[in-house]
């Protein structure tokens, strides 16, 4: 069902972001579906605004 929904939304040019990704298996499934993005504990734990700002600054300066 997810594959059909993903195909339909991609055809309609919607971007799909998966929320609550907690396992490598879920991340792999998202990759197979070619989702626009993912978020969840697997990628990053909740953090304060200050921590997020520092992390983004670091990432922007290393690209």
Automatic annotation (TrEMBL):
The record's annotation in InterPro entries points to: Cyclic-di-GMP_PDE-like, EAL_dom, EAL_sf
Designated name of the protein: EAL domain-containing protein
**Any idea where the EAL domain is?**
1-60
């Amino acid at each position: 069902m997810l594959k059909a929904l993903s195909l339909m939304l991609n055809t309609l040019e919607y971007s799909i972001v998966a929320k609550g990704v907690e396992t490598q298996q879920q991340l792999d499934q998202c990759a197979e579906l070619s989702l626009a993005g993912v978020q969840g504990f697997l990628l990053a734990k909740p953090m304060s605004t200050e921590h997020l700002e520092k992390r983004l600054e670091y990432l922007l300066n290393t690209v």
